[in-house]
Structures are given as C-alpha cells and as structure tokens.
Design brief:
The complex is a heterodimer. Chain A is mainly β. Chain A has strands at about 5, 10-15, 20-25, 30-35, 45-50, 65-70, 75-80, 90-95, 105, 110-114. The chains are: A mainly beta, B mainly beta.
C-alpha cells in the first residue's frame, strides 16, 4: 500500500483480555517502530525493529507487552492481561532504512479497556 | 525525565496571524529535529524537519528556527489558516547509531480562528 496500514482502527476489550494490534509498513521500509499516545500526552516509544537485527525493546512498559515482526514486514504488538492504563492510541511508523528519516506513521489503533 | 519540552500547550491565533511553537531539548546527541502535524483521528504527518548544521529552514508558510547553543528550536507558521488547526509535535532523535527512535514533546493544540 501507499502508506502504513494499521488494524483494527478501534478496539474495545475487557480488562484482563489479550489484544493483538497489527501494522503493515510501507513496502520496502526495513525500519519499523511502535509508539503509544495517551490522552493529552506526546508519543512514547515502545519498540523498534530493523531488518534481522535484535529489536530495541527498551520502551516496552511491562512484560505484558510484546511484539514481533514476521518476514521483515508485518508486525504485531500483543498486550496480555490488559489493564485500564493500557487505553491509548497505538501508532506504528516505518522508515526506509536504519538511520534514515523521516518516519511515516499510520493512523493508529485506538484501544479502550473497559 | 522529559527530554523534549514543548510550549505552549495550546495556542489560539487569528487567521492571517503568526503561530509560534517552541521546543527545548537536553540530549546533545540529538541531530534531527522534525515537526509533526496531527489531525483528530489521524496519525502524525511530517511537516518539516531540520538538522543542526543550519539555523533556519523554510518550506512555504512553515519555518523552523534552530539555536544549537541554547538547545532550542521553534516552528513558525506564517499567515495561519483555519486549516492549520491541529496538534503539532516537535521531536528529536540521534539519527546515527542506535534505534533512531523519536523523542516527542507533549504537543501544542493550535486553533486558528476565521
């Protein structure tokens, strides 16, 4: 596709459930990022993938959060045992290669935990 | 520790006026400074970016001013239009080495009155 695609666009789930969020980066982009945007806050880095290198997981807030990137393309962010504080917009971005900017963002998944 | 401080939180200007948003950073390793524009329900979109080898960059009505010694940079929107009403985020990253993750300010909600 022409841009970064994220699905679902909205997700409502009950506290304690697991959720999976999907990101399809721009074709040919090898760098992929996940960010979280909480209400009234800036964007907070979560995790970074670059090719076959080990991901930078330094931004993941707890061990309930994990992400994978299969085949160097699509990425899935998984949140286990969701809590109300996980409610936020989860944004994915990609860039052409490591060290290149800009990062291009998708429209995000708005996650609401009841 | 907030590494990029952005002000003001909100800004109201009249059509045709100048909008000015300021950011300050702490990490001297930062060497790429983008500004993103975000409309409700959409992901951030790159507006303009600067590297510290220049003190100013202009693209149409948008100008970044950069002061390396003060570790500050600002966005100026000339002839502001109602269509410019959005949330603006400054960001910074060390673009060489590491994950090049963006560190964002908390955003400025700009309202341009007709």
């Amino acid at each position: 596709g022409a841009g970064v695609s994220q699905s679902p666009s909205n997700k409502v789930t009950e506290k304690g459930k697991d959720v999976e969020l999907r990101c399809d980066p721009i074709s040919g982009h090898t760098a992929l990022y996940w960010y979280r945007q909480s209400l009234g806050q800036g964007l907070e880095f979560l995790i970074y993938f670059q090719g076959n290198s080990a991901p930078d997981k330094s931004g993941l807030p707890s061990d309930r959060f994990s992400a994978e990137r299969t085949g160097g393309s699509v990425s899935t962010l998984t949140i286990q045992r969701t809590q109300q504080e996980d409610s936020a917009v989860y944004l994915c971005a990609s860039s052409l290669v490591r060290g290149s900017q800009p990062q291009h963002f998708g429209d995000g998944t708005r996650l609401s935990i009841l | 520790q907030q590494q990029v401080k952005q002000s003001p939180q909100s800004l109201i200007v009249q059509k045709g006026g100048i909008s000015i948003i300021n950011c300050a950073y702490e990490n001297t390793a930062f060497d790429y400074f983008p500004w993103y524009q975000q409309f409700p329900g959409k992901g951030p979109a790159l507006l303009i970016a600067i590297r510290p080898d220049v003190s100013e960059k202009k693209e149409g009505r948008f100008t970044i001013s950069f002061n390396k010694s003060a570790k500050q940079f600002s966005l100026h929107i000339m002839d502001s239009q109602p269509g410019d009403s959005a949330t603006y985020f400054c960001a910074a990253t060390p673009s060489r080495g590491g994950s090049e993750k963006l560190v964002f300010g908390k955003g400025t909600k700009l309202t341009v009155n007709p």
